[in-house]
Automatic annotation (TrEMBL):
This is Phthiocerol/phenolphthiocerol synthesis polyketide synthase type I PpsC. The keyword Transport does not apply. Pfam families: ADH_N, ADH_zinc_N. CDD domains: QOR1. Its EC number is 2.3.1.41. SMART domains: PKS_ER (SM00829). The gene is ppsC_2. The keyword Cytoplasm does not apply. InterPro entries: ADH-like_C, ADH-like_N, ER, GroES-like_sf, NAD(P)-bd_dom_sf, Quin_OxRdtase/zeta-crystal_CS, Zn-ADH-like_protein. GO terms for molecular function: 3-oxoacyl-[acyl-carrier-protein] synthase activity; oxidoreductase activity; zinc ion binding. Residues 11-326 form the Enoyl reductase (ER) domain. PANTHER family: QUINONE OXIDOREDUCTASE-LIKE PROTEIN 2, SHORT-CHAIN DEHYDROGENASE/REDUCTASE. Keywords: Acyltransferase, Transferase.
Amino acid sequence: MQAWQCDQPLGVEALRWSTLPTPEPGAGEVLVDIEAASLNYPDLLMIQGRYQHKPTPPFVPGAEFAGRVRAAGPGVTQLQPGQAVACLSGTGAFATQAVVPAALCVPLPPGMALTDAAAFIMTYATSYHALLDRGALRAGETVLVLGAAGGVGTAAIQIAKAAGARVIAAAGGADKCALAQRLGADAVLDYQQHTPGGSLREELKRLTEGRGPDVVYDPVGGALAEPVFRSIAWRGRYLVIGFAGGPIPSLPLNLPLLKGASIVGVFWGEFARREPQANAAMLRTLLQGYQQGLYRPVIDSVLPMTELPQALARIAARQVRGKLVLRNATA
């Protein structure tokens, strides 16, 4: 097999395209021929040594992929050779093959494109868990989605609209805002035009008729957090997804007191580990939504697996709309 190996988590320059022995699946494991793998922001953080999960080097990065089962280890009865699956393994995706626990593989419904499947689980599960489980989003409420043109942001727009919410999508630049509108956003906020230190709060007040958003979906953090939280509605819920903007913000605790608002942490990976049955039910619901046409991953582009460094550079430069997908040449 071939794989991108990270010898030390020092950045993209530490990656090398290597030939490695093809692994054999052990008890409870499957060997999967990887056809497509998607990039997520944590992949970049992991190879930089900045993610909360720090695998022991050398390791093969890449959290999420789709492909077909080549072989099943002892005790695996739920998956068969040739079956199409999507896997969220945490590492190992940027390769031609991977051995993963069978429990981490989701059988795909008929007709689901493998490029879609590779770009589906992490972003849609994160957004669904955030909005409907942690955020208790109700029909008729207003959701502000920050980072609305990214992977989790585009998923959040679709999930919030399917739940009957009004969506304000915030992104940096007219092209990103236009993408959010095509996905169904009811209003857009360009924070290149409405900056945190400028008119952002005034624009939020205008878009919500002075009330503020009921739910804020924030994968960005940084300088946006405090002015947005100051704009939240009474009994609002501020969902902390991540910090793609860089700095982890600090909020004055008098703000949630004055607004009767909640700061809600969202860690879908830990939810999946601690509550596997609830997570499995959620994934079934999401795949049903895909089959019904409610959810479709936004694929920025599909690149050869050998172009991982270039793809990571685009992630780092915030040049991606939705998800980047890498595909193996033999797929």
